[in-house]
Design goal:
alpha+beta, elongated
Length: about 425
């Protein structure tokens, strides 16, 4: 009788160990928990990104807002201004002054001209000063420029009167001894009011002060000088030297370039080459030049802030890796892979950069709106700028955290557990 065979149990096939997984929700929660361990340091780390992104949004917003204001001012002033220069001496060394005596009347017949007139700085004898009369702080005399200007030229400068009025066509046609002072000149001469009917002496020639100007929109030199009628200046000191006089022409909107083309012929049909009309610059060129300069200057500042923010995030993330070496070893011992560790720290730096980008975007928008409201401007912000700013902050955080995350992933588990 054969003994019964004892069946040995078949060895079971070991089941494969399922790789550990790190769900996106777990990654985000771990990143937030790591940030909240030291909220103060996290806030200071994100501050660099806040400043960089905020500067980026504010720079582009303020540049766009300023560009719109430049366009408006160009339309109101520069686009309606034409300057005609006397270049007769350049064309003919024996030529006299390029402007005729009735230059104001000739240019005024052109369609689209609102105000126009000839002006020049009077060449006085050496040592000639301007003093107030009968008494005043400037009674001893002040070295002040004297500008000869026809009434049309004075109106074309768009002055704002503090007191009195401008001299008119009658005063100019009769060569009256009247003057208009700039506010700073009046203060230097001790003239504070016109109620006492003050006068000034240019050398030994008396002039009644008709008005005091405290601001002009064109020809700022009027504020620093004594302005007298053109005919009066010619009677006392002679006509201007060749090339010294210019004509200031104020036009209606859109007529400046046409007036610039017609002015030399209208003033000197016999020798139009004696005069050179300077039209307003192209508004597109002006705007592109100004905005380009502003963009380059301030975007460089924004880039510096972003670099500083990236360095701050990288430094803080690297310190966090060194401080949490034991935690990294424990996670690796429990099954976490190296790329899990890298993703965790990369997420922390990305969240810091993203939060900094959002806060910086809001800060930049508030800065643009605040400046615009304070200056009574219309704020201009391109949607692409607002949409791209948080993404820039996120990208800055991810790039800054790349090296610390790789270093954390390469930490050997056994060495990490020793800490």
């Amino acid at each position: 009788m054969k003994p019964a065979r004892t069946r040995l149990p078949r060895p079971r096939t070991p089941r494969p160990v399922e790789p550990s997984r790190f769900a996106p929700g777990d990654v985000l929660s771990e990143a937030v928990a790591g940030m909240l361990r030291r909220p103060g340091r996290s806030a200071l780390t994100a501050l660099g990104t806040v400043l960089g992104v905020g500067a980026f949004v504010a720079v582009l917003g303020l540049t766009a807002t300023a560009s719109s204001r430049i366009d408006a001012r160009f339309d109101l002033l520069t686009a309606t201004e034409v300057t005609v220069e006397d270049i007769a001496r350049e064309r003919d060394e024996f030529a006299g002054p390029g402007f005729p005596a009735d230059a104001d009347a000739r240019i005024g017949r052109l369609g689209g001209v609102t105000d126009a007139g000839v002006l020049w700085t009077v060449r006085l004898a050496p040592g000639t000063t301007v003093r107030a009369a009968p008494v005043g702080d400037g009674a001893d005399g002040e070295p002040v420029d004297v500008v000869a200007a026809s009434p049309g030229a004075l109106r074309a400068a768009v002055p704002r009167l503090a007191q009195g009025r401008l001299y008119d066509e009658f005063a100019s046609s009769t060569a009256q001894p009247v003057a208009v002072l700039g506010a700073s000149v009046a203060a230097r001469l001790g003239i504070t009011t016109l109620e006492t009917r003050p006068a000034v002496f240019i050398g030994d020639e008396p002039f009644v002060v008709a008005g005091i100007v405290d601001d002009v929109r064109r020809r700022a030199d009027v504020l620093m000088s004594v302005t007298v009628p053109r005919t009066t200046a010619e009677r006392l000191w002679g006509p201007p030297e060749s090339g010294a006089a210019t004509m200031l022409v104020a036009t209606e909107t859109g007529a400046a370039r046409q007036i610039a083309a017609e002015a030399p012929v209208a003033l000197r049909p016999d020798h139009p080459e004696y005069l050179r009309a300077v039209p307003p610059p192209d508004p597109r060129t002006l705007r592109a030049g100004v905005t380009g300069d502003l963009d380059r200057l301030f975007l460089l500042l924004a880039a510096v802030c972003l670099v500083i923010g990236a360095v701050g995030i990288a430094h803080t993330t690297l310190v966090a890796v060194l401080e949490r070496t034991g935690e990294i070893g424990l996670r690796r011992a429990l099954g976490a892979r190296s790329h899990h560790i890298a993703v965790q720290f990369l997420t922390e730096s990305g969240v810091l950069g993203g939060i900094g980008g959002l806060v910086g975007t809001a800060t930049g928008v508030c800065a643009v709106v605040g400046v615009a409201l304070f200056r009574h401007w219309t704020p201009v912000l391109h949607p692409a700028t607002v949409a791209a700013a948080p993404a820039i902050g996120l990208a800055t955080g991810l790039l800054a955290g790349l090296y610390p995350a790789v270093r954390a992933a390469r930490t050997p588990p056994a060495e990490a557990l020793r800490h």
